[in-house]
Specification:
Elements lengths: L3 E6 L4 H13 L6 E3 L13 E9 L3 E2 L3 H9 L7 E7 L10 H9 L6 E2 L16 E2 L2 E2 L2 E3 L8 H15 L2
Parallel strand pairs: 1-2, 1-3, 3-5, 5-6, 5-9
Antiparallel strand pairs: 3-4, 7-8
Bound molecules: flavin mononucleotide (FMN).
């Protein structure tokens, strides 16, 4: 597996916990799990694969700590890196579900990174997600509020897909 860094933003700890679960499934050491609130964009430099996670707040908005971090990332050349995105949301907010995943994906297109880890799964009930772009969900969408029982199998499916897609 390529050198992997996990960067997450989390307001009430949900996405932070998921970041740890992903780390276990991808064999990422604790030192390579980063809270974006305490990180600088240049901290992504040592990694080949960036796993980026945000919950969604407001009405389809980024988790608060992501704003500055994403601004900084956008300005970097990430051409030699691969990016996989995950998000936590609440699918009863039925037209903004996991919007932050779509924002991160769209904002980082200009960096030249290669995106992996698009995902589709059964059991969702939302009407729309801003993370549905060009016919695919551009990352893993989780609902720890209403569908916690589906999270582990979704995480396993997604991390297996990452392992098969990473180059
Ligand atoms: C005020 C508020 C607004 C929210 N807005 C959205 C939203 O627009 N879309 C969504 O999918 N989830 C939304 N959520 C749900 C959170 O993303 C969800 O509770 C998430 O698990 C929080 O993760 P965190 O503790 O890592 O920040 C909202 C929650 C609150 C309390």
């Amino acid at each position: 597996m390529k050198k992997t860094g996990i960067f997450y933003g989390s307001s009430t700890g949900v996405t932070a916990e998921v970041a740890e679960d992903i780390a276990k499934l991808l064999n990422v050491p604790a030192a390579d799990i980063h809270d974006v609130a305490k990180s600088a964009p240049s901290d992504v430099e040592p990694y080949d694969l960036l796993v980026l996670g945000s919950s969604t707040w407001g009405a389809g908005d980024l988790q608060n700590d992501w704003y500055d971090f994403l601004d900084g990332l956008e300005a970097l050349n990430l051409r030699d890196k691969q990016i996989a995105i995950f998000g936590c949301g609440d699918e009863s907010m039925s037209d903004t579900f996991c919007g932050a995943v779509g924002i991160i994906y769209t904002s980082l297109q200009k960096t030249g990174a290669r995106f992996i880890g698009s995902f589709d799964a059964d059991g969702y009930e939302f009407d729309e997600s801003p993370a549905f772009i060009d016919g695919v969900y551009v990352g893993l969408l989780l609902d720890q509020v209403n569908k916690e029982e589906l999270t582990l199998s979704r995480l396993k499916g997604w991390t297996d897909k990452i392992k098969s897609e990473v180059k």
